[in-house]
Design goal:
The protein has about 230 residues and is an alpha/beta fold. It is built from 9 helices and 7 strands; from the N terminus they run H-H-H-E-H-H-E-H-H-E-E-H-E-E-H-E. It folds into 2 domains: about 35 residues, no CATH class; about 190 residues, Rossmann fold, CATH 3.40.50.2020.
Amino acid sequence: MINKFLNVLFPETCPICQRPASDHKTAPVCTECWQSIKPYTGPKCRTCGRPLISDASTVCGDCLQDGPAFDSARSFGLYEGALRKAINLLKYHHVKRLSGPLSDILLQVEIPRVEAVLPVPLYKQRLRQREFNQSALIAKYLAKSLGSILVLDALVKLRDTKPQVGLSSNERRKNMKNAFGLQNKEAVKGKDILLIDDVSTTGATIRECSKVLKKAGANSIHVLTLAHGMMD
């Protein structure tokens, strides 16, 4: 009844297939396109979750050469199709209601027991421009669902960085080097942490954040992202 009422007042067309979006919870993505969002089930690095070419491999080259500070990292799906569109609608077009259903699909991923949930922070100027942090919205939802503490006053971004799109793997790491800091060590010291971000590609961002958290005394760090992007 509510959906029918909202569809009369606010009819929306799915940006993917151009059909009417009848479920207001996932609108403007229609039910059919939303149901096309599936988890990635192919071979992946057991440490960082990066998709791998062959089942014969279990750890990616980056993790073999330079082990990350986090204990595990997992993504729900690949940054493509309806999932990519939904993330971009939340992130760039302020469709905040999608944070709920996007958080729900993350609950399908096996999540270790954690005490605190932290989002990857935005630089303060970028946060003012965007008016919200999409990772923080998801972290808030997950913390409530997991019965964990939401920590927003610990991890901070110290400087604005270039957009990662178009940068090589090495350039991404240099871009993120020393970009994060901690202002409340007691919030993470000795705790099992769940770090939330929307998309991970080379893992440069989550690696830097994890270094800071581990240096501050975090007991374990597990990273969860909605999607894993692939380098061109």
